[in-house]
Amino acid sequence: MINRRHFLASTLAASAVPFLPLRALAFDPATAPRLTLPPMLDVTTTGRLALSAMTGQHDYGAGVASATLGFSQPYLGPTIRMANGPLGAEISNTLAEPTSLHWHGLMVPGEQDGGPHLPIAPGTSWTPDMQIGQEPATLWYHAHMHGKTAPQVYSGLAGVIHMTDGRDDDRGLPSAYGIDDLTLVLQDRRFDEAGRSSYAPGMMDQMHGFAGNVMTVNGQTGTVAAVPKGITRLRLVNGSNARVYTLHFEDARPLHLVATDAGYLPAPIELAALILSPGERAEVLVDFSAGGSATLLSDPGRAFIVQDFMTDDNLSARITSLPQSFDSPPDNLAGSEVQTRTFTLDMEMGNMAGGGFGINRTPYDMGRIDFEVALGSVERWIIQSSMMAHPFHVHGVKFQVIKEDGLPALPQNSGWKDTTLVTRETEILVRFDQPASPQKPFMLHCHILEHEDAGMMAQFAVI
Ligand code: C2O
Ligand code: CU
Ligand code: CU
Asked: pTM of the prediction?
């Protein structure tokens, strides 16, 4: 069976499996299976990247295989290490249905973005020729077929990208993949009595987003991550369809935030807890130099276990002190905006077509360009959530969060972002540096995938 410590309280959706208490079973980190990371695919020297969407069978840890999808492997995809320069990709689709591959956070023009206007038909491939040019950051890639994003990503069509400039040693940052630089894809999954995962959303799941009853990290459950007795970097990726995590350590050791979605902060920010909504990434440093074990939990009120850690003396601690600063503060976009737009993230609007999900009271329509912005300009966007908090994401840009519910941005949102959780009202400044034609526009949407598929999405051209 799935390790019962990793069952989640299903706060959002009715679930077949009841909530089980935090410490239901004795857990021995010394004998638990070790967390593994996806294989690393380094394309920094080749400038060539090949991925293939495929069907697979994956065991999440229950000893039972579930039907899954993956990129070049049965579930999820490799971690791709990219650097600036030319990158030729070949994405092939061996599935029986169309899919697409969107580079979430990659600054490329609309024709290379991999969104809903770039479907890959079964048995064909998509070969974008890209020119990468951006700051180091943790990005991700995932399927983005309109109406199919939720089931395809849930089944496993997602992976992580490390943008690197090769200068992490100068910054004093851990960078040994799988040793002191760990990539953690956080996903909650729903398992049936037989221990199989399947995606069958009911009406409440469509409304609130599909929540699981078991926590998985990199497609595994009940594992312990081995770390050196020193500073470890965790690259946290919320690859869940709908769940928002409030991450904190059981022993209250701090998380030192060093990077947000789109790049490094000027200096680490010490946090007691980090909120991570679907689509967001964060890089944190954690001090394990005292040795022993530690547990990463989520949700203050009803804590559940995300990942256990244990130091291993066989792993060499390369970094033993926290770096003081990395990069100069980001250019301040304030004052350069040429236009203000307001977006409401709507749900349950009675008689509106499309099941009540939309932006500005309008469900997404692939055939309609909602607005156009000027290439190179900066705009102020005000985003308003209805009914619940929604993670808001924009393609092809990075933005600065200016205000949240009338207050200055949370410290964790002070860096460059491409996705942010809008509780009630958030104000952002966005700079449009990449072009997108009306034929291959950029998307803005809620990253609760059930909401996105149901129409809480809009599209714009950058000309
Ligand atoms: Cu991560 Cu439009 O998506
Ligand atoms: Cu995106
Ligand atoms: Cu939403």
From this structure: 0.95
Residue pLDDT, tens place only, 345-400: 999 755 444 468 999 999 999 999 999 999 999 999 999 999 999 999 999 999 99
What structural domains does the chain harbor? 4-27+170-311 (2.60.40.420), 40-165 (2.60.40.420), 339-462 (2.60.40.420)
Query: Which H or E run contains 276?
Result: strand 274-276
Work out the angle at residue 106's Cα, subtended by the Cα atoms of residues 75 and 430, and round it to the nearest 5 degrees: 130
Largest CA distance in the chain: 62
Using CA atoms, how far apart are residues 87 and 340, in angstroms rounded to an integer? Answer: 35
- From the CA of 457, give the closest atom in ligand 1: 2
Report how far ligand 1's centroid is from the alpha carbon of 193 (Å).
32
How far apart CA 78 and CA 342 sit, in angstroms, is 38
178-195: b or e for each residue (b if 16 or more CB lie within 10 Å)? bbbbbbbbbbbbbbeeeb
Structure tokens at 241: 């369809």
* Spatial distance between the Cα atoms of 177 and 238, rounded to a whole number of angstroms: 19
Q: How far, in Å, from the CA of 385 to the mean position of ligand 2?
A: 19
Residues 337 and 402 sit within 8 Å (Cβ to Cβ): no
Residue whose entry in the numeric block shows the structure tokens 């490390």: 162
